[in-house]
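Quick board copy: two proteins, each given as sequence then tokens.
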Amino acid sequence: MQPGAPDGSAVRVAVIELFAARIAGASPRDLAQRFDADADLTVRGGAGEPPWTGRGSGRAGAAEHFARLGEEADLELFDLVTIRASGHRAVVTGTVRATVRATGLAVVGTFVLDVAVDPRGLITRYRLLDDGWAACGVG
């Protein structure tokens, strides 16, 4: 790392505070305020995948993602395992357990999050990869 370069603490704080707020029951709108107005969001999207996946942008995209996730699944366990940060970017690994309301299936899995923040500490990049098919009983 070059002298004066960000040390990754801002991105660590942003990630931890985002998920702490989610677990504490913050509204999708409140969670979205942690994102930049032009944030790039990708949640392992694609045709035919679980409804909480897809692409979005900005605070509206973040609010929609968290709203759909809250409507579709009941979160039972969420654990951040590793946060590797350098500068304004981090890769986060973790585990999650939830019950999908439409199927009643309990899902236990891992995820990887690629996230970036700007100098204000707002999230500008949010790329979440998980085993969404397992949540539908397909994985």
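And the next:
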Amino acid sequence: MFGISFFQSVLQRLRDEQDAEMLGEATGGPGTTSGFVPETSSGTAATYTTVQQAYCELTPTESPAPFAIPDFLKRISLAEVASELALGEAETALTLAARRRRFAAANHPDRLPAEARLNATLRMKLANMLIDEAFRRIKKPSMPK
């Protein structure tokens, strides 16, 4: 095997094993054919139909119920989202960040099925707009009169 590439040596070994199988010689221990594909207990390789049948037996027969958009995701107006956030005058940066996280946990489009993503995206945009405006009001110092 010296003087040939590794790939060529693997090809040669496979040819030798194939020749040995054709002659009826054993090519390894029990349960192996060419060293790569295990055999079934009966001594024959599993057929495609056997594997397909086993797969079909394991797949669920009932399809899941279609996703119904929850009522809270149907509230997509600015007033509805604002009332849901219930932002007050005494908000701090910490409370606003906590409200944003809590709202995103329930409404983020990445956490919802495709049917609800459009409404969830709109709700997240509105909530982020409202919370960002509240942040600006906190950071803006009041002018002395």
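Board note added afterward: The longest helix spans residues 117-139.
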